[in-house]
Amino acid sequence: MKVLVVEDDRDLAGQIGAALAQAGFTIETAHDGEAGEFLGATETVDAAVLDLGLPGIDGVEVLKRWRGAGLRFPVLILTARDAWSDKVAGFRAGADDYVLKPFRMDEVVLRLSTLVRRAAGHATPELSAGGLLFDMTTGLATLEGMPLKLTAFEAKLLRYLMLHMGRVVSRTELSEHMYDRDADRDFRSMEVVIGRLRRKIGEARIETRRGEGYRLLPGDPA
Questions:
Q1: What was the pLDDT predicted at 185?
Q2: Cβ contact 123:110 at 8 Å
Q3: What's the confidence (pLDDT) of residue 5?
Q4: CA-CA distance, 85 to 90, in Å (whole number)?
Q5: Fold assignment, 2-119
Q6: The CATH fold of domain 126-216
Q7: Whole-number pLDDT of residue 183
Q8: What residue spans define the domains of the chain?
Q9: Can you tell me the distance from the alpha carbon of 69 to that of 46, in angstroms, rounded to the nearest whole number?
Q10: How is residue 83 annotated by DSSP?
Q11: Separation of alpha carbons 71 and 221, rounded Å
Q12: What are the tens digits of pLDDT across the range 188-218?
């Protein structure tokens, strides 16, 4: 899952990015309104963390432009502005949640995870496909009650497939959500990871649609 962090304080942006990366997100970062607007409009992102007090274009205007362009990814506003009028302006522009600075980093991670799963249509943090479970709060996966030993990338891949279980997900879509824009997006490497994941969760759980992509079965395979 890819998150765009738009924050002009570079140290804070780095801290937010590190915390989200630790939680299994892929991060894109911008430090002013123009760059943030551009990346939100041109990169495939699952959510954004947006500061209001940005140089160039402020956060409310960035958000208005995203929504005006039809971009519907969830947006979490981070700001030191605590006036009610600022909150109203953020929500009217299309924000989904609002956190005041200073804040606890784990709260930001939790709120963002909640926005992402709700946007994908999941009401609870535990994703399930028969005996396969993935807890988005802890990042842990289990199969028939037994913990699975997954690499960080395997966990990211499984989480994305489970968020969109039952739907065919193309290799291009997976690469756009798994890698940042500067990474080498090698489909052959993706095939290798899919193969490793199949061996851990059951070969038949991930269906390959030739020329289309992959589909995680919503129940236990027969």
A1: 65
A2: no
A3: 97
A4: 9
A5: Rossmann fold (3.40.50)
A6: Arc Repressor Mutant, subunit A (1.10.10)
A7: 63
A8: 2-119, 126-216
A9: 16
A10: -
A11: 36
A12: 788 888 999 999 999 999 999 888 899 999 8
Q: How many CB atoms lie within 10 A of CB 82?
A: 9
Strands 2-6 and 47-51: parallel
At residue 142 the predicted structure's pLDDT band, cuts being 50, 70 and 90, is very high
Residue type, 38: F
Residue 126 CB coordination number (10 Å): 13
pLDDT in tens, 6-39: 999 999 999 999 999 999 899 999 999 999 999 9
On whether the CB atoms of residues 37 and 12 are closer than 8 A, the answer is no
Contact 60, 52 (CB under 8 A): yes
Amino acid symbol at 174: L
What's the token pair of residue 212? 């289309």
From the list 199, 208, 202, the residue with the least C-alpha distance to 221 is: 202
Longest dimension (CA), the chain: 56
